[in-house]
Amino acid sequence: NISKKKIKNVLIILNKRKNIGAQKWGIFKKFYEKFALNNLNYNLVFKCHPSENFSEINALLQKYKVVKSDINLDDFDLVVSHWSTFIYQVALLRKPLILINPKNKFNYDKWRLSHFPLIVDTPEKLVNTISLIERKKIDINRILSDFLDISLGPDRHISLKILESVLIKKNQAKHKKNVI
Fold first, then answer.
1. CA distances from 82 to 12, 28, 85, 97, 104 (A)
2. What is the pLDDT of residue 3?
């Protein structure tokens, strides 16, 4: 699914600050800002969490394009994130995906993601990994397929239905809290 063109449009999926805390969220923010500052050839778009306050995130990342609305993954050549349920959708669509773990400060076992082979800990390694993907030195389709098999099992359609039902229930519960 990866064309031979250079990676240009990069979607960065942000986690909810409340989930990891503002200080830890800031560590990821600094990582992405350092990457952006030293790599002006990429068009970066930050996707804030659906339940996040868009105005606050937009103010924190005011130098960059920030979106909250639905996006079309076809508009992007690469997705970068830390942990998010959205990465499973990215993997299912065979969109190149790189996970970020600044200076290896975070335990990805907690999110059952430590088996993902493309976790980078510095902006320089992110640039190098992007280059390897562009030059087809990394078999991204195999990596994503293995990731889905390990994460969701070989009968992933069943796992996806379970994941979807959990997400829908969480979303409905949250909306009930907001209505009352």
1. 9, 8, 10, 10, 11
2. 45
